[in-house]
Amino acid sequence: MDVELLAVSLRPYYLPREFGHVIMLCVYIPPSQGPSCERIHAAVNNLQTQHPRALLLITGDFNHASLRSTLPTLTQYVTCKTRDNKTLDLFYANVKDAYTSAPLPPLGRSDHNLVYLLPHYIPLVRRQKAQKKSVKVWSDEASEKLKDCFRTTDWSMFQSSHGDDINSLTECITDYMNFCVESIVPTRRLRCFPNNPRWVTPELKVLLNQKKRAFYSGDREEQRRVQRELQWKIRAAKKDYGKKMEEQLAQNNVRDVWRGLKNISGFGQKTSRAADGDTKTADELNSFFTRFDSPHTGTLLALNSPHVSNHQRSRDLPSPPPPLRSTTDPSTPSALPSSPLTVTPMQVRG
Length: 350
Description:
With 350 residues, this protein is α+β, with helices and mostly antiparallel strands. It has helices spanning 38-50, 124-127, 140-151, 156-162, 166-184, 202-217, 220-250, 254-265, 279-289, 297-303, 310-316, 345-349; strands spanning 4-10, 22-28, 55-61, 75-76, 89-93, 99-104, 114-119, 131-136, 187-192.
């Protein structure tokens, strides 16, 4: 009997903006199947590739299997017993600190307990403060004023004051141009929320607010009209943002392209994650990775066990190497060729 897997895509009305939609996977692994989870791993990787911004939830009866080693980036939230003294029903999610679990009585004649999951997820807009930045509002009027300022400037004054020093002249002219831009072009203060994608424009925010007002008013026709316009605007905004990144890449502006890719993928975000496991797992890893440093580590560990007799210890211990012979011994035959004295690591250990 193979693994049973069902994936459902959900889009509730209210969802944190950092998630595009929700993908729920229901899993059943028979007890005779064993701990193999390759099919679940392949399905999850395929879904995450197609929908990188989706909230992924995996639940079901896993019996003796676990996704801890197969999908280590997922977090398991069921900490209570689900059947007798065993935890067979698990719940995984691709977000941290999202739920806490509590047991409830079984439903009907079921032999599995119900698990109550209490959400504790804090949206990204509440966890991180909005960034404030200043941007220049370029308009035709501001451009004309800036042109007039440069047109009436006596540029020979800069050359006469700096002479042949090209570096000082360049720095002075650059500072003057920046001063003109700061004085003429108006500045606007913006707040950038962390849950806003880079392709979200002010027009999209206006349409989102119109959709909310249409929903609360109960006007279905207006809601459908705004939804169609919103979908068209979203496609256009994503396309424009993609063209912008392509233009930056074509202009060898690798810095802005890399910044955009990090914002899209979330690369470089600091996350605190505690190490999972216990001292036994750490000791096994240390023994595995240091097994080549001491060839007799395994033998000595086994001999130190209290279940090994003294006779077995003396029989299994490695025999000492033969004593070294001095090259100045007169009993040494002269026919033997002279060679430098060498000591092997085995002789040092003996």
